[in-house]
Amino acid sequence: MSDEAARADELRVPAAEWRATAARLRADGFDFLQNLTAVDWIKDERIELVYHLWSYARRQERVVRIDLARAQPEAPSVADVWRAADWYEREQFDLLGVVFTGHPDLRRILMPADWVGHPMRKDYVEAASYNGMPTTRANTLELLPIWDKK
Amino acid sequence: MSGAAKSLVVAALAAAGCAAAPEPAAIRDARPTRLERGERMLVEASGPLFTVGAPTTVALDALGVTLPARAVAADRVVAELDDEHRAAGPTTVTVVQATRRWTSDARTPFDVELCAPSLHRLANGWTRLRGPPWLWLALALLAAAALVAAPLPVLAGLVVVWERKISGYMGSRLGPNRVGPNGWLQWLADGLKLLMKEDVIPRDADARLFRAAPYLAFLGMFLTFIVLPFSRYAIVADLDVGLLFLLSVTSLVVVAILVGGWSSNSKWSLLGGMRSAAQIVSYELPSSVALLTIATRTGSLSTQRIVAAQGGWPWQWNLFADPFTFVAFFIWFVSALAEGNRTPFDLPEAESELVAGYNTEYSGFRFSLFPLVEWVNIAVLGAVGTLLFLGGWRLPFVGAALIDAHPWLDALGFVAFVGKDLAIVFVVIWIRWTLPRFRVDQMMALCWRYFIPFSFVCFVGELGWVWLMPSLPARIVAGAMFAIFGVGCGAWFAARVRDNARRYRDLVLNDALGPVNR
Amino acid sequence: MGELIVANADTGEEMTLNMGPQHPSTHGVIRFVIRTDGEIMREAVPDVGYLHRAIEHIAEKCTYEGFMPYTDRVDYVCAMPANHAWALAVEKLAGLEVPPRAEYLRVVTDELNRISSHCIALGAMAMDIGAITPFTYILREREYVNELLEMICGARLTYNYHRIGGVGWDMPAGWRDKVLAWCDHFAPVMDEFDRLITNNELFVRRLANLAVIRADEAIDYGLVGPNLRGSGVDFDVRRDVPYSIYPKLRFEVPVGRGLCGSVGDAWDRYWVRAQEWRQSVAMVRQCLEQIDGTDKEFWTPPKKLKPVGDAMARVEAARGDMSCYVVGDGGANAYRARFRTGSFNAMGIIREKSRGLMIADLVALIASLDVVAPEIDR
């Protein structure tokens, strides 16, 4: 939404204050943590967490943004405020490496448990092999013998 | 043959009265009496006339035969045919005890036939053949086993194909239709394929038990065919304890399932095996008690006697005989479904939950045996239901006397039996493809909290009915049961089928969308 | 998963079972590690990620327009709303207008897809409970929908029909009549299904009072769609955060009322889907009536799509509120695309609700939440 009114509703919160703000928002009626996205702004050396909250009672949305240092992205977990945050935070940890302190069970959710690296980071380079299986292979077309006839 | 067991109930009363003038006897039933050597005849009086223990003889006057007898109660005498007599015809029967004699009414003679030994007797007469008895015994057993076992895989295969075609048509698709005429040789293709598959035994499985389990199940199923009366003559052995034998032998299947599940050394198999064992053992109880209800009514556990006690017409079946047998039928039917692991009781093989339950680790021929046993079990279930409740091989107009006179009519009885059997099998298959399945605790609750009490009520009720209910009101009740449940429900069912056919006639037409090629 | 299993090693009566990833009834490639005491489960821990195809990652490598086919695969059982979510998000981001005819076509195809997705959901649920035949009936009906959608966009499952700025093709001649004929044909099927399954004694017994999710729990765990409405929360994105031309349509939102047990049990979630069918059919009819009054134009392709900023779009997919959050930085590709799907949240509640259930109930629970693996893993 590019409306000014909606923009006015957005909150920018430092990581240290997030838990208090979350509790306040929850008490205010924002009971649905609709979405949690981590965006890797590599040029700005930051990772931005975008929380979309929704209040069923008031039919209202609220956006919260938190900036984290890209070198060591840590944010407090709100899994006890919104239970939905449990799996959201695990996913963002898995894909972007954001560590949510206080999370009851922070481990990878989509990638295999022994994966190295966080794939959605902009500077992610896939390892050459995973458990002995090469992660790249030659383009099949280039392997076809017809190309040799040129 | 041996349509009659060792003790026949003679369908007429012997005369009662004082030594001077014989009194007329009351005829209760006019069935003929066939006796072979070694068989017994029961003569009943209308009152306490005889002295128990006194030397007695029974004379068949018109045939000129005298049989040794003994009085077993004040109004009953049992006579045994101990010689190779051949004679037939109406005769009066005279019971002689010391100086007293009673003769049955000449106006309503007994129809007695003393006949040659039957095939069954011949087969059992191997002891009289020359040569070592054990050899003849072994040969006889092998021949009998082969005769009974050979059709079993074919039977199972045919039931499988029929089930797949029914499930196909019920799901608006065709079943197997490639192999053989319209798909009817599919079982052959599947059987051959399974025979050729590699036999995989998990490394940590208990190999001996693992290998033995399917054969144990097959044995349990195979043995039941011994007592099934396919027709008046076509029964392997008319055991006195036929029903008891059936119940005990089918329990081998439980053992086999448990053994198979446990020896596979797989958690899923174990779970499936245990579930199945719990289910089958639980449902043995209401099933047996429901069978007892029928045994009570007939007064015998012998399968042929039970069939003989029914008539050919539907209102003469045990199903409509009285309310207790009617309820017993449904209790028995549902329990039999549970014992056969059929939906809605197919938790042990619930594909969507346990992959294949106790079957999971089996492959190849051994794998094929378990489903084979299951499908033969359905056919046996139908056979047991037929003989107990639906009159077995009996047909209207074709009585036992007619069959004895024209033995080829026995084939009609066979067809009747198989037809009724297949009708029950059809209902079983139909239920499988319609209903969802029970959960374990619901299934157990149904058995222990509802079926067992109800089945005992039926049993006790039947006891009371048979003991207290005089014959005329009983027949009226039977007729009423048939009218309400047989005719009435049948008509209602037919009306529903007609309504459904009309309402959903165009449900599968593709014309709504026009030709597919756009 | 290592530490989880070691800590809960088989002690005495307890068994650790593995259900999946290949399993006939886990609605896709999902794995559950079940700790069970005989038939009763202590806990079922889901292990997802077997179908992770890095769709969000791919979004950063594709242009906005070119990414549309990938959105089909976010939930291939109900692909149209995923298309719609992406189109809506990018159009909000770039401030694009969509011609009214395209809006109607989007809604018609969305609703048809919702019906076919519910066909799978309800049919698979019946099959998991043990009744296999209704599934075949339902698939037969779903075939018609597949054919209808194939007529309009060329594909039966992964449609790639919506475009940034409209839809890919207009209705072919005669399509409208075919859809209306199908709607007439489908009405008795829904009734038959109700008679066969919805009110079937056995079915109700299996599902009533199973895994009751209270309204506050549902909201807390982030359940959406029929799962949320089954727990008694009256919320539907189409009505409450309306998009496209939904404000012009009249429809009801079925909410679970505990008709056969408690509010929020498995049967209620099932029942909500069984009612949504009918509403979708009504919506399709209304759209096809109203579409006559629109202009012929169905797509205004955007020129130079290089937006800056971020936008969030929510659509009501078959499995609930699917939200698409897209961030643009002025390039031809999206900088970040995020799909938050209903099945992902539904998986989060399974561990909690599985305690004390039987294994057969776990299957019923998964089926009642209507999870599909592609939505969870993307």
Characteristic key phrases:
heterotrimer; B: 518 residues; alpha+beta; seven-stranded mixed β-sheet; three-stranded mixed β-sheet; 52% helix; globular; disordered N terminus; C: 378 residues; 48% helix
In a nutshell, what does this entry contain?
With 518 residues, chain B is α+β, with helices and mostly antiparallel strands. In chain B, 52% of the residues lie in helices and 11% in strands.
Topology:
The complex is a heterotrimer of chains A (150), B (518) and C (378).
Chain A: H1 4-8, E1 11-12, H2 18-28, E2 32-41, E3 46-55, E4 60-69, E5 74-76, H3 85-96, E6 99-101, E7 129-130, E8 133-134, H4 140-143
Parallel strand pairs in A: 1-4, 5-6
Antiparallel strand pairs in A: 2-3, 3-4, 7-8
Chain B: E1 7-14, E2 33-35, E3 40-45, E4 55-60, E5 65-73, E6 76-80, E7 87-91, E8 93-97, E9 100-103, E10 110-114, H1 119-124, H2 133-149, H3 151-170, H4 186-195, H5 207-223, H6 242-263, H7 267-298, H8 303-308, H9 323-339, H10 351-354, H11 364-389, H12 400-405, H13 410-432, H14 440-468, H15 471-503
Parallel strand pairs in B: 1-3, 2-10
Antiparallel strand pairs in B: 3-6, 4-5, 4-8, 5-6, 7-10, 8-9
Chain C: H1 2-7, E1 14-19, E2 31-37, E3 40-47, H2 55-59, H3 68-72, H4 79-94, H5 100-129, H6 133-153, E4 162-163, E5 166-167, H7 175-198, H8 201-207, H9 215-220, H10 226-230, H11 237-240, H12 266-290, E6 308-317, E7 320-329, E8 336-340, H13 342-353, H14 359-369, H15 373-377
Antiparallel strand pairs in C: 1-2, 2-3, 4-5, 6-7, 7-8
